[in-house]
Amino acid sequence: MTSSPICVHCCHCSECQRQTGSAFVLNAIIEFDRVEVNGDVVENTLPTPSGKGQVITRCVECGVVVFSSYLSRLGKLRYVRVGTLDNPSECPPDVQIFTSSKQSWVPLNPDIPVYEEFYKFEDVWPDASLARWHKLFGEKD
């Protein structure tokens, strides 16, 4: 990533659990053109519960998902898997989402906002992140 992300989600939805084989995923949401890819990748399009679809981008060598993009936001945003970064500790989660489907044994950090489902961006994101979003989409959320 060539800049800080707009926001980092710690997503506990059942789809993220299934896709990652883990209890949650950390996604750094960032503009498409602020992600540099070094090496070969392969894309797979997957259905999503919303019906909007998602493109999963994997490293050709190891098969690890590096980032994803929702088809409705393709060419605008990437959801970078924080664990693939050289320094994942630099991207702690800003918000914990879809906690209604989290695994019961996963504790939630009380210092990070928690939402049972999704949330309104303006409830969590700083003004600079909202400005970046509006520049991309010209919409409120």
From TrEMBL:
Pfam families: GFA. Gene3D superfamilies: glutathione-dependent formaldehyde- activating enzyme (gfa). Keywords: Lyase, Metal-binding, Zinc. InterPro entries: CENP-V/GFA, Mss4-like_sf. Residues 1-106 form the CENP-V/GFA domain. PROSITE patterns: CENP_V_GFA. Belongs to the Gfa family. This is GFA family protein. It comes from Sedimentitalea todarodis.
